């Protein structure tokens, strides 16, 4: 009997003897906690006494939650979480980042992205000292209004992407006519024509002169004056500073009919591009953009041979070219770009010989000369703004060379001035640019001009997987790029095929599972449900930048997108076979 009592007492102490460190907790390396206490003991404990370390218990619960989450994610995500955990990340933060993490990135991840391991080479510091504009020093600027717990959900959530975009843009009013802010109604004048009615007057005008514009004077597209004001106001706020093809004062006066710096072709081409930008606020306006683009094509085809060579026509062709690019209309994009370039030569905007007499394309009118200089400067900026992309393209053939790690670039003083180091410095700058843009600006301010940085950064981090293995940093930035493309898809149809191509590259490298890639694309496609015109195909855009060095046709958008569709179909068949 005594032996039995002693045995049971020893058994209880084995479970947890309540000492500073019991044998079982010592063996497991955890802190002792009274998890199961008999009622007889609880009755003797004074009220308000804390028996459990709440902070320690919460930490253990977070670790258990992370372990449970890791059982249901892909190998790549589990590896990434393990690496971040070993680097000292909080388990609760990792659990939150993994939850609903198919494409959405938590704002916490965005806030702490600059804390991820960054390769700082001495060459990069040398570049920062010599070229502080291209290689600025310092960490990312944090937005004081950013909610660190806010999730950038995929478009499959209950809240529409449109409403989410509108709520974060304080200068734009809420939609009051329909879920998308646009509706069709019969003209009250009895004409029976369908007229697109705009939103309520904007709370912030770009210029009061827009209130005096009768837009029907310039276009046959049935758009209301109210909606045209909102489209132009957003355009002048976001797009025009990036590519200022015309002087705003000249244009507004021309829009009122006070000078020659406006034309029907320019208005239709400008609105075709501007409506795509406004579609990030109101997705149904994308349909209006198609109508303006079709109208501008008709005007150009009809009057091409008789239209005089003017800066208005040249600006219109540039807008038509970039709009065609956004639609994915490759042949039209190249044709309008070539016609614009030919017109620039006629107007002597580029490379005139200062020793030669002034050509016939030059006018003595001061206003005309100012407008021409504005156009030339805008086109020059458009062609040269992508500095870091140019650096990556220059270094790409060298980094593919087997001796690139030891190859030194003589103009630099650093002992590590290799092509790989130059490339890494530009990639780091692209990371900062993309993160800053994503964190600082609301969705309506996202521009397609941002796409080039996304494309080059996505390629760079996928290449980093090949060079350094599955570094956890690559997945964060790859998802960031896809999340940004997801946002752009509301207005720009081309984005879908770019996303397909990037996912195809990730699948080919074996760093992403097919089901994850398909889920990412489905989240993106939710943004395009409003689109009534089928996406076109652009066969000339290079997406796989490394592959293009040796096999350009295989690196093109259409080839990679088709490859992804084949993988998608094959994956669906396999899932169907397993379900059967």
Automatic annotation (TrEMBL):
Keyword Nucleus attached: yes
InterPro entries, per the entry: Notoamide_regulator, Zn2Cys6_DnaBD
UniProt entry keywords in alphabetical sequence: Nucleus
UniProt superkingdom: Eukaryota
Recorded GO MF terms: DNA-binding transcription factor activity, RNA polymerase II-specific; zinc ion binding
PANTHER family in alphabetical order: ZN(II)2CYS6 TRANSCRIPTION FACTOR (EUROFUNG), ZN(II)2CYS6 TRANSCRIPTION FACTOR (EUROFUNG)-RELATED
Name this protein carries in UniProt: Zn(2)-C6 fungal-type domain-containing protein
Naturally occurring in which organism (per UniProt): Colletotrichum sublineola (Sorghum anthracnose fungus)
């Amino acid at each position: 009997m005594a032996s039995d009592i002693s045995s049971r007492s020893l058994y209880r102490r084995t479970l947890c003897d309540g000492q500073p460190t019991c044998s079982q907790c010592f063996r497991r390396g955890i802190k002792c906690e009274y998890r199961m206490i008999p009622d007889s003991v609880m009755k003797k404990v004074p009220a308000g006494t804390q028996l459990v370390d709440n902070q320690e218990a919460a930490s253990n619960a977070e670790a258990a939650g992370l372990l449970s989450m890791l059982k249901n994610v892909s190998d790549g995500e589990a590896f990434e979480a393990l690496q971040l955990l070993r680097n000292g990340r909080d388990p609760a933060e990792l659990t939150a980042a993994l939850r609903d993490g198919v494409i959405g990135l938590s704002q916490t991840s965005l806030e702490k992205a600059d804390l991820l391991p960054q390769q700082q080479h001495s060459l990069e510091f040398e570049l920062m000292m010599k070229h502080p504009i291209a290689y600025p020093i310092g960490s990312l600027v944090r937005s004081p209004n950013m909610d660190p717990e806010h999730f950038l959900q995929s478009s499959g959530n209950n809240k529409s992407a449109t409403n989410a975009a509108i709520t974060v843009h304080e200068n734009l009013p809420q939609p009051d006519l329909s879920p998308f802010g646009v509706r069709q109604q019969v003209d009250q004048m009895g004409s029976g024509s369908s007229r697109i009615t705009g939103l309520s007057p904007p709370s912030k005008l770009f210029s009061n002169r827009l209130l005096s514009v009768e837009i029907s004077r310039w276009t046959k597209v049935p758009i209301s004056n109210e909606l045209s004001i909102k489209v132009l106001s957003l355009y002048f706020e976001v797009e025009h500073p990036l590519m200022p093809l015309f002087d705003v004062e000249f244009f507004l006066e021309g829009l009122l009919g006070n000078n020659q710096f406006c034309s029907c072709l320019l208005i239709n081409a400008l609105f075709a591009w501007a409506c795509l930008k406004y579609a990030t606020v109101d997705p149904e306006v994308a349909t209006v953009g198609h109508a303006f683009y079709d109208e501008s094509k008709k005007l150009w085809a009809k009057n091409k041979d008789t239209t005089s060579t003017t800066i208005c026509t040249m600006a219109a062709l540039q807008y038509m070219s970039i709009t065609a690019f956004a639609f994915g209309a490759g042949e039209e994009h190249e044709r309008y770009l070539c016609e614009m370039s030919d017109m620039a030569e006629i107007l002597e905007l580029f490379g005139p010989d200062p020793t030669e007499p002034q050509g016939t394309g030059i006018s003595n009118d001061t206003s005309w000369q100012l407008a021409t200089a504005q156009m030339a400067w805008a086109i020059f900026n458009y062609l040269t703004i992508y500095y870091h992309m140019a650096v990556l393209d220059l270094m790409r053939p060298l980094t593919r060379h087997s001796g690139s790690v030891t190859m030194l670039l003589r103009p630099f003083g650093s002992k590590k001035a290799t092509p790989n180091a130059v490339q890494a410095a530009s990639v780091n700058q692209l990371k900062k640019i993309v993160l800053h843009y994503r964190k600082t600006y609301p969705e309506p301010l996202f521009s397609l001009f941002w796409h080039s940085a996304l494309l080059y950064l996505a390629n760079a981090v996928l290449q980093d997987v090949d060079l350094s293995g599955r570094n956890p940093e690559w997945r964060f930035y790859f998802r960031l790029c896809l999340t940004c493309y997801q946002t752009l898809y509301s207005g720009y149809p081309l984005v879908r095929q770019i996303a397909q191509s990037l996912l195809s590259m990730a699948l080919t490298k074996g760093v992403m599972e097919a089901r994850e890639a398909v889920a990412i694309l489905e989240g993106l496609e939710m943004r395009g449900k409003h689109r009534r015109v089928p996406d076109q195909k652009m066969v000339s855009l290079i997406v796989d930048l490394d592959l293009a060095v040796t096999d350009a046709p295989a690196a093109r958008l259409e080839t990679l997108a088709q490859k992804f569709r084949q993988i998608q179909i094959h994956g669906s068949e396999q899932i169907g076979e397993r379900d059967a």
